[in-house]
Design goal:
The chain is α/β, with parallel strands linked by helices. Helices cover 44% and strands 11% of the residues. β3, α4 (114-134) and β4 (138-141) form a beta-alpha-beta unit. The protein binds 6-deoxy-beta-L-fructofuranose and manganese (II) ion (2 copies).
Length: 389
């Protein structure tokens, strides 16, 4: 038996993790069948930032908010960044959107029509301009591009077109800016998606250069995929840019992180820590939609779930594990991981919060804050901003 990591070391490491919440999770969303509107949802991006600031105020570990353009289109992005700072948060990744326009029916940057490709590229470049104004580090690229039928378009030519758009966008990045390339197995394209997996994303990143990194959306894999293996591999290669955390039962369900499979989240966080990825170089983002549950508390819960998985992963006794692995003691090695996973870290996290002057129970603190009642009262009239509008 070894002593395992000290409580102080675990507590200190926990304070280094900063999560980023997605602006679109604060607004109405739904399935392709129905958007269920909730009272009090933000009508503007500023109101989304107000809500995100509440999440950070109660958890202490969600200081950044990702924007999605044009859902969060405003006239003055520098002023928006200032507004965020005044509320105690910062603007995070800028997410591009080349998937909600009739022109993109046959693809955006991979479209066979050069005029449409140019339009999509211009949007990507505009998003880098926005990053300059907001001070954002990361440009997040997800393409819905793909084909539904064999023969519909040439798979190889589409990769060439994709490469060209990525190259132009990459060359436009500033020294401190990065490009995060997101992959997704399928949907909305069903036969062949142009970036369906980490291998394709990674191949493009390798060609582009060190500022191009892969982002792992946990909902974007086939059932049973060993995501932590992908994480370990990308970290070894220095190409893990970050995560879009969410939970899935079936496809891209976008449920609360840690809700469907907390053990998977733990295994992912263990590989992050094992690979030295618990640093600001890894963007720990949420990408979720709260269709039937109250949004702000759902985001607080998700942040806490990621924190709990991180705490458990930090508790893994590395020395005991290495010894068991060295001696080929399969059961002992597995037990080291399971002991950490089965530890109730909630008291430890309550302590971490109290140490920084927060209520130990963020869910209760939010419930009792009166914020929900206030926004339901105040946010009447106007259109809700973004995705489900
Ligand atoms: C695509 C995706 C991508 C988008 C977001 C709204 O499924 O995960 O990250 O930007 O959803
Ligand atoms: Mn995503
Ligand atoms: Mn998704």
């Amino acid at each position: 038996m070894t002593a395992g990591p000290s409580k102080d070391a675990v507590k200190t490491a926990l304070t280094t993790q900063a999560l980023e919440t997605p602006s679109w999770a604060y607004g109405n969303s739904g399935t392709r069948f129905k958007v269920f509107a909730q009272p009090g949802v933000p009508r503007t991006t500023r109101e989304k930032l107000d809500d995100a600031a509440r999440v950070h105020a109660h958890t202490g570990v969600a200081p950044r908010v990702a924007l999605h353009i044009p859902w969060d289109k405003v006239d003055d992005y520098a002023a928006l960044a200032e507004y965020a700072t005044e509320r105690g948060v910062r603007l995070g990744a800028i997410n591009t959107n080349v998937f909600q326009d009739d022109d993109y029916k046959l693809g955006s940057v991979t479209n066979p029509d050069p005029t449409i490709r140019r339009k999509a590229l211009d949007h990507l470049l505009e998003c880098v301009d926005i990053m300059d104004a907001t001070g954002s580090r990361d440009l997040k690229l997800w393409f819905s591009d793909g084909i539904n039928y064999p023969g519909q378009d040439d798979i190889r030519s589409r990769q060439d077109r994709l490469e060209e758009a990525l190259r132009t966008t990459y060359d436009r990045l500033g020294d401190d800016q990065r490009m995060l390339i997101e992959y997704k197995l399928f949907e909305p394209a069903f036969y062949a998606t142009d970036i369906p997996d980490w291998g394709t994303a990674y191949a493009h990143c390798l060609k582009l250069g060190p500022k191009a990194q892969v982002v792992v959306d946990t909902g974007h894999h086939a059932p049973g995929t060993n995501i932590e293996f992908i994480v370990a591999t990308l970290l070894r290669e220095g190409r893990l840019g970050g995560f879009d955390f969410n939970s899935r039962f079936y496809a891209d369900d976008d449920l609360m992180a840690g809700a469907a499979d907390p053990f998977q989240l733990f295994r992912i966080m263990y590989e992050v820590i094992r690979g030295g990825g618990l640093t600001p170089d890894t963007a720990f983002m949420l990408d979720q939609c709260h269709n039937i549950e109250a949004k702000i508390p759902a985001i607080i819960r998700s942040v806490m779930n990621v924190q709990e998985a991180t705490a458990k992963a930090l508790l893994v006794d590395g020395d005991a594990l290495a010894e068991a692995q060295r001696t080929g003691d399969v059961l002992a090695a597995n037990a080291v991981l399971m002991d950490a996973f089965n530890t109730d870290v909630r008291p430890l996290l309550a302590e971490v919060r109290e140490d920084s002057g927060l209520d130990p129970d963020p869910m209760r603190a939010y419930r009792e804050s009166g914020w929900q009642e206030q926004i339901v009262k105040d946010r009447v009239g106007g259109e809700q901003a973004g995705w489900g509008a």
